[in-house]
Amino acid sequence: MKLYELNRDIINALENLEEDQDINSLLDQFSDKVEDVCKVIRHMEAKASEAKEEKQRIADVQKYYENQVKSLKSYLSYNLTNQGVENMEAGTFKLAFRKTKSVVFTDEAQIPDSFKEEVTTIKINKNEIKSAWKSAAVPGTMIEESKSLQIK
After folding, report:
1. Full-prediction pTM beyond 0.85?
2. Domain locations in the chain?
């Protein structure tokens, strides 16, 4: 029997006390179902935590391989440059150096403002607003009361 079905049966039994139903049995079944749902919640919380850890592990593996690629390209570039090689075919691969240009900042203070972009991030502190509400209302906000189920 599902939790909502037990809930409905308990309400019906309480409304019709004259009928010969065992309310204690229904309450015990309800308690068992609630416990089962709590077990499922704990299991899902553990799975979410495992997924988060696995996500971090996979990110670490990705970073490792990216660093290995960078290191091997640098190693290959160094050795080709030492041999004076600009173009080369090695099996199915064709290697060639090409000239690229990139900007390097030597002194950011000397860069004209026309090349600078201001980036502003605004974060609203909910904890401070909650504290301020104890003495007066904060415009643009409201305090919403709700229940949060705690499982221990």
Report:
1. no
2. 3-132
